[in-house]
Amino acid sequence: MAFHGDVARAATIPSVVFQTWLVTTSEFLHSAIVFAIWSTWHSFLPTGGYASCGVWHIEDTDVEEFDEEFSLHWTQPLTPRHATRGRRPHQRRDFASALQLEGCASKYADPVKIGAGDYASVYRIRKKAFGSSFVKSKRKYYAYAVKVPNPDDHEAEEAAEHEMTVMSAAKEHRCEHVLPLLEKDPCVNGHEVSNAFVTKLLPWDLLKWKTKLRRRPVKCAAKLFKAISNGLDCVHAAGYMHGDLKLGNILFEDFDDDGCPRGLQLADLGISRELGKAARKFDSDYYYDCWHLPGALFRDVEDPLELSEGKRFIPDRRVDGCSLAMVMFEFFKFHIPELQKDLGEGSCGPMGPDREILLP
């Protein structure tokens, strides 16, 4: 009986091996199919960022979480999957293609791409210390950012020049809560980057903070409202409206003892407009998801602010007031009665994610 038992067990070995192989192969094929489907779907989405007004994608900028092993020297093509997926071809260009002049004294080094929009890309850079070496500490290693317009794109260069003009005006007015312009045409790795500019690299924005919270920090509402209002007032005093106020464009350094954002700065002044000077209305098919802006800025839509002059509009500080009301409502369910009674009503006109998609 023992002999027959051994034979029987021996006979079952090929069967067991085949079944094991079949299960393993099936699991592998299933995983491969799932990964292929996920990769195809994910390739249409911005990695590590979020879609926003004007199709701007920004990566995670928690400075302390980056290691040097992920740094890319400017001579290497910026082609890793995380740096190019979901981007248009002209957004995948090498940082080196934006370098204009050689032989300048390097003040910054080691650019690493963290985001891209239709007209520009943003890189983390590190600054040279007072001596001959570059700052090495984890916190200060990437304490700065450089915004570089797409090479050989005249419209992108004009947009960059305009943004620098607005930031310079805010700097002259010593705007405490507006991201400061530190330098134009910086020298990076011995090359001048034309039409680019350097700012502080702040690791947080209100959108990122909101997504990490389990509940709304109502106790921070008054502090944030005061800081944002102060920043907007200063931009207005400099002669401009911000024009693109939303959670993702409000950056900050860290948190205070109450867990509220500290060192808040308004950023992304690329579509700012000079107050009182007629400007072209936005193409609504391009800005279809800019629900944080009054409809008066778009063509052929309701204009309760009465800003329209045919196909143009007169930039007004009330535009920023309406966007501020939208930000406070989105984050805190906090109403500013004099600006809007509810989403889609009041003096600001239709606003909010539930408004109809704007069409030209």
TrEMBL record:
Belongs to the protein kinase superfamily. This is Cyclin-dependent kinase B2-1 (CDKB21) (CDKB2) (CDC2Os-3). The keyword Glycoprotein does not apply. It comes from Cladocopium goreaui. GO terms for molecular function: ATP binding; protein serine/threonine kinase activity. PANTHER family: SERINE/THREONINE-PROTEIN KINASE. Keywords: ATP-binding, Kinase, Nucleotide-binding, Serine/threonine-protein kinase, Transferase. InterPro entries: CDPK_Ser/Thr_kinases, Kinase-like_dom_sf, Prot_kinase_dom, Protein_kinase_ATP_BS, Ser/Thr_kinase_AS. Residues 108-360 form the Protein kinase domain. SUPFAM superfamilies: Protein kinase-like (PK-like) (SSF56112). ATP binds at K147.
